[in-house]
Amino acid sequence: MQTYNPADHMVMCRKYKQNLPKLPNPPFPNALGQEIQNTVSAKAWNEWLEHQTMLINENHLSLIDPAAKQFLHEQREKFLDNADYERPKGWTAK
């Protein structure tokens, strides 16, 4: 019988630089999804999803457009690495 180990459900989050609960499943069915699950907390990923939605809506992005996909990929990496990422017009910190 397997015992529950809380450490198995934690990850050193690359955004917050601390151990936080990890994503229960990879967000993509590929190596990138596995990497994100292993390096990004559920908190950071959920914040990215909210931010991504704002970027899609504000910029009227089509997710079938390769340029839009590339833009979102670049912004996701910047967001998760605490680099200077794009914010919607009129955005203010909470």
**Largest sheet geometry:** 2 strands, antiparallel
How helical, in percent, are the residues? 40-55%
* CATH-defined architecture: Orthogonal Bundle
Q: Note the gap between the termini.
A: 45 Å
Query: Number of domains in the coordinates?
Result: 1
Average residue pLDDT: 91
| Element pattern in H and E | EEHHH
Pfam families: Iron_traffic
Function: Could be a mediator in iron transactions between iron acquisition and iron-requiring processes, such as synthesis and/or repair of Fe-S clusters in biosynthetic enzymes.
Family: Belongs to the Fe(2+)-trafficking protein family.
InterPro entries: Fe_traffick_prot_YggX (IPR007457), Fe_traffick_prot_YggX_sf (IPR036766)
Task: Write a structural description.
- This protein is mainly alpha-helical and 94 residues long.
- It has a single domain (6-81), classed as Fe(II) trafficking protein YggX (YggX-like).
- Helix content is 45%, strand content 6%.
- It is built from three helices and two strands.
- The protein has helices at residues 31-39, 42-59, 66-80; strands spanning 10-12, 19-21.
- Strands 1-2 form a two-stranded antiparallel ribbon.
- Helix 2 packs antiparallel against helix 3 (66-80).
- The longest helix has 18 residues, at 42-59.
- The radius of gyration is 15 Å and the shape is globular.
- The termini are far apart.
- The mean pLDDT is 91.
